[in-house]
Structures are given as structure tokens and as C-alpha cells.
Design brief:
CATH superfamily: Acyl-CoA thioesterase, double hotdog domain
Strand content: over 45%
Structural class: mainly beta
Number of domains: 1
Distance between the termini: 32 Å
Shape: globular
CATH class: Mainly Beta
Number of strands: 16
Helix content: under 10%
């Protein structure tokens, strides 16, 4: 049974930080005690959007750094404005968890530029062509290494085969809420999906290789609309255990942004 949310709100600390319980819907395919990168990145975006929120502004570029294994545990969220400004400002958010020795540490950090918006509809220009319609996609058997936890929380419509030549392409829609009792914002929905890019673009068999991303950078030139997010991505593998996934993110009207991820690639023993 799929959990109704990735996180449950636990309250606020004396310092004013929000605390959340992580549900099994966050579980990574790389290990049953680890969170997949997508739900934590969306939780960071939730904090980044809310921190000093102002009308007529929005997040335009988000960088998520995964500082260590993110446990299936209670998470504390801290956020602040690093560089204030009227037209542009830099926001920071961190996820904190308790280590096995009882100490607390940051396990993920998000930084975002937030810009004042203006009307540029008369000069809109989009470089990336639209992704093939999701109605033409198909369901793919994700059994084995590709099944369980977070991956089971998505509806999928695959445009290409997994591991295909060239860019992998898929549409996905999250079924749970990010936080129990809350509606997903457009950018929270985008980031619940965005981190699947390295899996969509993978050419390596996960039964023989791991390819964990240490980060993700997303440039958002248009706020997505609707429930479905499209991904077109491909991974480049270098000769010394380092790779890079690059891709385009979509809604059903067209491209909304681009994503890049650094990967640590290792053979399974």
C-alpha cells in the first residue's frame, strides 16, 4: 500500500525549525534505510519557496547538494535568506537528521535564486522542442532493482525503453502529497520528479552498477502547469568513476527547465 504522503509534519522546535517524519514512500532503490533524492529535494524547495516569500517573485535556479545518506527518520528543516534583495535574492535551506552517535548534522542543502518577475510574454522563445505526448507512452515493468519505495509512488508513461540509445524519455506523476494534508505547489511537484533524471538517462544495469547523484541543479525558465512532469535525459560516463546526467524537464505545454546531476559510478561487488 502506498503512503498518502512522503512526510508528516511533527511540529516546530523552540528555534522555529519545522520537523517532519519520513514515510516509507521516500525509500531509495539503493537501500531500504536511505531516502531517494527526489522527496528531500522537494522538501527543500518547499522551504525555499516559503522563506521570506513575496508576491511577484519566484525561484529561478535551485541547487541541491546531498551531503550524506539521508535516513528514513525524522528530519528538521532550516532556512534563511543568505543574500537579500528586491529584484534578486539567494535563499538557503538545509535538512538536518540525527546521526547514529546521537549528533545532529545537515544531510542535504538547497540554494535558490529568487527573482522579481516581469511580463515578457511578447518575446517568449523556447529552445527545446516539446516532449512526445504522454498518451503515446506505455507502462514498463519496473520489477527487480527498479521497484520499491519512492519508485512505486509514481504513475509512469514511458516514451522510450529503459536503457535505450540516446535520451531516455518518460512522463511521471506523483501519487502522494509531499507533506500530509498539503497540496503540492507547482515547483514541489517538479522536484518530486526531477531527481529521476539519472535513472531515466541511465545506460548501466543497476544490478551490476550504482550511479548515485551527489547533487542536482535545475534552471526553471517557466513554472510548470498540470499534474504530469516529463523528463528527457541522458547520462555520460567518464573513465574514472564519475558521470554526468543532463536533461530537460517538461509539462504538457512544453519545456520548463533543464537539469544536470553529478554521478558517482561504481561496480557492484
Amino acid at each position: 500500500m502506498i503512503d498518502s504522503s512522503y512526510y508528516r509534519f511533527l511540529g516546530t522546535t523552540e528555534e522555529g525549525y519545522e520537523r517532519f517524519a519520513s514515510t516509507p514512500a521516500t525509500v531509495s532503490l539503493w537501500g531500504p534505510t536511505l531516502q531517494h533524492g527526489a522527496p528531500p529535494s522537494a522538501l527543500l524547495v518547499r522551504a525555499l519557496e516559503r522563506c521570506g516569500a513575496r508576491e511577484g517573485t519566484r525561484l529561478t535556479r535551485v541547487v541541491v547538494e546531498i551531503l550524506g545518506p539521508i535516513p528514513i527518520a525524522d528530519i528538521e528543516v532550516r532556512s534563511w535568506i543568505e543574500r537579500p534583495g528586491r529584484r534578486i535574492e539567494l535563499i538557503v535551506a538545509e535538512l538536518w537528521a540525527t546521526a547514529p552517535d546521537g549528533s545532529s548534522r545537515a544531510v542535504a542543502r538547497g540554494t535558490a535564486w529568487r527573482m522579481e518577475t516581469a511580463d515578457t510574454t511578447e518575446v517568449v522563445h523556447v529552445v527545446d522542442p516539446a516532449l512526445e505526448p504522454r498518451e503515446g507512452g506505455k507502462s514498463v515493468d519496473l520489477s527487480g532493482m527498479w521497484k520499491g519505495g519512492y519508485l512505486d509512488t509514481l504513475d509512469w508513461s514511458w516514451i522510450t525503453e529503459i536503457g535505450c540509445e540516446g535520451a531516455g524519455k518518460v512522463w511521471a506523476k506523483p501519487k502522494p502529497a509531499l507533506v500530509d494534508g498539503e497540496e503540492l505547489t507547482a515547483l514541489e511537484r517538479l522536484f518530486v520528479i526531477a531527481d529521476i533524471s539519472n535513472g531515466v538517462g541511465a545506460k548501466l544495469n543497476p544490478e551490476h552498477w550504482t550511479f548515485l547523484n551527489t547533487d542536482l541543479t535545475v534552471h526553471i525558465f517557466r513554472v510548470p502547469e498540470g499534474e504530469w512532469i516529463g523528463v528527457s535525459a541522458e547520462t555520460t560516463t567518464g573513465p574514472d568513476g564519475v558521470g554526468m546526467c543532463a536533461g530537460v524537464l517538461y509539462d504538457e505545454q512544453g519545456a520548463v527547465g533543464r537539469i544536470a546531476q553529478t554521478l558517482q559510478i561504481r561496480a557492484r561487488s
